[in-house]
């Protein structure tokens, strides 16, 4: 078991640090944001991630997990330093790596014994090599080090389970010594025979982008099929189910919706198209997915107009602001595109989300925030359900309808079905099965 420093206490850093401690390592999670570290030291978690607090508390109590703003000290004491800092999109869609370079420099400055720099953040191919060069240039002694790419595959909302029971672990390194140490870091997973892919740094970096882009393309594909189903009278769920029965396709990530969002797919698809371009070739497929996904969000407004042709002075209830359930993250959520279009068309928007309203308020401070789905639907001419929170799955439909002026329901996640909604007096459109009873 190793002494580990995790730099960055966002979703990735905090979940990874907690998981690494749960594997038996001694972990210090560091951040330059004092407010976040103070919260953690007081037993509070700065993000909403189901199950995290329990595992975190357990490891803090066992003395394996601590939090600090003293980055230098934590790196000096570590065998392995994980960089889990943000890599937001830059102006041209490329990943902005300033924070990664900064961690590289701090690592170099504190290289008092052999250490491994592990990149957990999603970074373009070639970054590992550049970090290696940077550290070599900045360090002022002859102490050895290695750089490893160990991408994360954590889904927000189920990140703890994804870390503790991953489908695979990817270790990209050109050093046998570093690969051996990483095995020790992940020893419980080796014992459980989790598949471990050992490869070079470039391949590991690419695996992450290829995985996210592929999933984004898969979602986009089923969204297009859903749109066709709406025209020809097909049922997209049955299409997806039958497709998924083919083991080569798999049924996962074939659920239609208002377009993928979040901090990963939109950013990583754009960054991948940029990486292709930088190398003088193009990825028509991923570029198309980016474009189709943008249109998918707008299509939700089209569906609303199907039921309510003139939006001027109409009240629309939006249910769900996070990009998916079980997270308070609203980055690139479809709601952020759809709400302004509805408002521009003259509609008044009333919104409710069980967890994400605070996060949404940062970008949309003046919206009409409501305290329940029923409160959001009060005097509304239509409900647009954007996120499939459990709370929206078994709403009291009579109560909902009775509070509305017009019972129109646009269900972008196919939580309900047309027959049941019609029987409760709603006019209903879903995604890819609007003509199905
Ligand atoms: C995604 C990947 O699933 C993780 O493996 C990866 O580690 C992570 O990005 C990352 O790069 O850090 P995440 O963004 O948390 O995880 O969310 P997903 O569950 O993948 O969902 C992304 C979006 O796709 C959501 O807006 C969701 O509503 C949408 N989606 C997903 C669909 O519209 N249909 C589906 O069938 C599945």
Strand and helix layout:
Blueprint: E1 3-7, H1 11-22, E2 26-30, H2 34-41, H3 52-61, E3 65-68, H4 71-76, E4 80-83, H5 98-109, E5 115-119, H6 127-138, E6 145-149, H7 159-164, E7 169-172, H8 176-185, H9 187-191, E8 196-199, H10 201-232, H11 236-244, H12 265-278, H13 284-307, E9 315-319, H14 334-344, E10 348-352, H15 357-363, E11 368-369, H16 373-377, E12 382-385, H17 397-403, E13 408-411, H18 418-423, E14 427-429
The chain binds uridine-5'-diphosphate-glucuronic acid.
Uridine-5'-diphosphate-glucuronic acid (UGA) is lined by residues 122, 152-156, 212, 215, 219, 253-255, 257, 260-262, 264-265, 268, 323-324.
Sheet having the most strands: 6 strands, parallel
CATH-defined fold name of the largest domain: Rossmann fold
- Residue windows where pLDDT falls under 50 for at least 5 positions: none
Q: Strand order within the widest sheet?
A: 3-2-1-4-5-6
Strand percentage lies at 5-15%
Gyration radius, in Å: 24 Å
Class derived from helix and strand content: alpha/beta
List the ions, cofactors and other small molecules found in this model: uridine-5'-diphosphate-glucuronic acid
Please provide a written account of the structure.
The protein contains 18 helices and 14 strands. It is of the alpha/beta class and 437 residues long. It has 2 domains: 3-199, Rossmann fold (3-Layer(aba) Sandwich); 225-429, NAD(P)-binding Rossmann-like Domain (Rossmann fold). Helix 1 (11-22) links the parallel strand 1 (3-7) and strand 2 (26-30). Helix 1 (11-22) packs across helix 3 and helix 5 runs parallel beside helix 6. The mean pLDDT is 96. Uridine-5'-diphosphate-glucuronic acid binds next to helix 10 and helix 12. Residues 122, 152-156, 212, 215, 219, 253-255, 257, 260-262, 264-265, 268, 323-324 line the site of uridine-5'-diphosphate-glucuronic acid.
């Amino acid at each position: 078991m190793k002494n580990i420093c995790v730099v960055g206490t966002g979703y990735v850093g905090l979940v990874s640090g907690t998981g690494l401690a749960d594997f038996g390592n001694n972990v210090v999670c560091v951040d330059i944001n004092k407010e976040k570290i103070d919260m953690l030291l007081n037993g509070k978690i700065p993000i909403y991630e189901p199950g995290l607090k329990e595992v975190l508390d357990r490891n803090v109590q066992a003395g394996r997990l601590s939090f600090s703003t003293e980055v230098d000290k934590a790196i000096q004491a570590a065998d392995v330093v994980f960089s889990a800092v943000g890599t937001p999109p830059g102006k041209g869609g490329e990943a902005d790596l300033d924070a990664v370079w900064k961690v590289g420099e701090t690592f170099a400055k504190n290289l008092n014994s052999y250490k491994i720099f592990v990149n957990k953040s999603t970074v373009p191919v070639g970054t590992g090599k550049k970090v290696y060069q940077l550290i070599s240039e900045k360090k002022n002694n002859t102490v050895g080090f290695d750089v490893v790419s160990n991408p994360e595959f954590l889904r927000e909302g189920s990140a703890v389970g994804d870390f503790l029971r991953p489908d695979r672990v990817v270790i990209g390194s050109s050093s046998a010594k570093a690969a051996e140490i990483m095995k020790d870091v992940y020893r419980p997973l080796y014992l459980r025979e989790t598949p471990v892919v050992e490869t070079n740094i470039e391949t590991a970096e690419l695996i992450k982008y290829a995985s996210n882009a592929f999933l984004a393309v898969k979602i986009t594909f089923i969204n297009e099929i859903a749109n066709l189903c709406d025209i020809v009278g097909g049922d997209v769920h049955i299409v997806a189910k039958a497709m998924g029965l083919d083991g080569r396709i798999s049924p996962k990530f074939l659920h239609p919706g208002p377009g993928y969002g979040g901090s990963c797919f939109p950013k990583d698809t754009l960054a991948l198209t940029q990486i292709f371009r930088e190398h003088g070739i193009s990825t028509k497929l991923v570029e198309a997915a980016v474009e189709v996904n943008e249109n998918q969000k707008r299509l939700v407004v089209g569906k609303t107009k199907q039921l309510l042709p003139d939006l001027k002075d109409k009240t629309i209830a939006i249910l769900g602001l996070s990009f998916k359930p079980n997270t308070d993250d609203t980055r690139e959520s479809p709601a952020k595109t759809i709400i302004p279009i509805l408002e521009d068309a003259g509609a008044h928007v009333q919104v409710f989300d069980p967890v994400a309203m605070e996060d949404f308020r940062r970008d949309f401070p003046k919206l009409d925030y409501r305290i329940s789905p029923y409160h959001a639907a009060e005097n509304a001419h239509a409900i647009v359900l954007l996120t499939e929170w459990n709370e929206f799955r078994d709403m009291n439909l009579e109560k909902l309808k009775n509070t509305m002026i017009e019972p129109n329901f646009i269900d972008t996640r196919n939580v309900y079905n047309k027959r049941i909604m019609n029987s409760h007096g709603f006019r209903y459109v879903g995604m890819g099965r609007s003509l199905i009873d």
